[in-house]
Design a protein that fits this description.
The chain is α+β, with helices and mostly antiparallel strands and about 90 residues long. It has helices at about 40-55, 60-85; strands spanning about 25-30, 30-35.
Length: about 90
């Protein structure tokens, strides 16, 4: 996964011990604020990682799910930061 080592809050890579589970992303969708906590994203990704395992995309369902969740969360953080700059 491409974004796994990017921390949108700094120029350095994410530290393995960073508290991603305690974080959330807040975005405006159709004029309403939507808060996406990392824990909710992990639940959603479980289904995706199961499908990836069943289709042969990965042999390690849990590691794949963690990578996808981190990538999606970091992408959402980047979008959140860009939207804050526009305001």
């Amino acid at each position: 996964m491409g974004l796994s080592n990017i921390n949108p809050n700094s120029n350095g890579p994410l530290h393995n011990k960073s508290p991603l589970n305690a974080q959330s992303v807040s975005l405006l969708v159709n004029g309403k604020e939507v808060v996406v906590p990392y824990s909710r994203l992990r639940k959603i990704v479980r289904g995706l990682s199961k499908m990836a395992y069943l289709t042969g995309e990965t042999n390690d369902e849990e590691a794949y799910g963690e990578d996808v969740a981190e990538d999606l969360f970091e992408a959402l953080k980047i979008i959140q930061n860009k939207n804050k700059k526009k305001r």
